[in-house]
Specification:
The chain is α/β, with parallel strands linked by helices and 365 residues long. It folds into 2 domains: 8-190 and 351-363, Glycogen Phosphorylase B (Rossmann fold); 198-339, Glycogen Phosphorylase B (Rossmann fold, 3-Layer(aba) Sandwich), CATH 3.40.50. Helix content is 38%, strand content 20%. The protein is built from 14 helices and 16 strands. It has a 7-stranded parallel beta sheet, with helices on both faces. Strand 14, helix 10 (281-290) and strand 15 (294-297) form a beta-alpha-beta unit. Helix 1 (19-34) packs across helix 14 (351-363) and helix 8 crosses helix 9. The longest helix is centred in the first third of the chain and has 16 residues, at 19-34.
Amino acid sequence: MKTVSQRAVAYFISAHGLGHAARAAAVMDAVHAIQPDVRFEIFSTVPRWFFDDCLSGPFTCHTLQTDVGLVQHSPLEENLPATIEALEAFYPLDEKQLQVNADKLRGLGCRLVICDIAPLGIAVAHQAGLPSLLVENFTWDWIYAGYSDYLSGLKPHINYLEALFAQADYHVQTEPVCAVGSPDLVVPPIGRLPRTPADEVRQRLGVPAGKQLVVITLGGTATSAEYFQPGDLSDEIFLVIPGNSDQIEQTGSIVRLPVRSNIYHPDLVRAADVVIGKAGYSTLAEVYLADVPFGFVSRSDFREAPVLEAFTRRHLRSLSVSPAALADGSWAPLVPAMAALPAAGADRVNGAESTSAFILEVLSR
């Protein structure tokens, strides 16, 4: 018979990209660093391998759709008609399924339900009589409210989700915060920590001495040729592209990695001289913590983008790279200016530390 942990915590995680999973993994890893016996019961459609690579403490994955998020045409473009169709199929939440999942949480001995930003977890926690904790820098109702051309189809879901998110018993907001509220705690950006020294990572990649390691990333998703071209690289650049191949491939000074590779992504970020990519939450947080120059590609039509961009310009060593420059290769001449940006000169604080302490304090109540 399976032993039920006396410190079991359910974690409902949005599978919209891998950013929410990366933030949740950073929090879980920080909890395990303090209390290794806490067992996380993860509810999401994020693949298990992602958490295998991130977590050293005990966890179990339960495959479950926890929200809708946004249906994407591509990593940089969303499909609103398809999103509305998916929302209408998912909400309102089915009462029978809420009860099934509430019974499951009680059977697992869960004492707390954490949600990043999956509202299903809040509803299940309420059904199970368990406290819920929302971790967010935005909520889906706030995101949907930014699409004025689609408000007639989105408004019922905005109202429903706003009420559901408000039911959370505890609330942590993580910088950069999109809609300032009245949370229990506001923390700096939450990111996964690197594990391997930068020199060792560069050696494993085969970066020659004196070359600048440039990493181009679209936030953990496949980096296809449609959105990125290497262009004419100078002799000083060694380029690594995660998610650009089914296996590790090297052509000259270009290394293409699969979405899951033997190089932990936060290690790759810290080893880089420059990171270029979509200004999504997890990339921003990991680049911020590593204090690496960032060529950020902003999504002008996404409501979160101006908030992330403002934080990036204020707190990161950064320059803007247009989607067109990323696509046609004209980003390459910008690398020397990015690499020359001065370091922050101060240690960065990971919001995972104070978030994990808050979680353990809630568990002790």
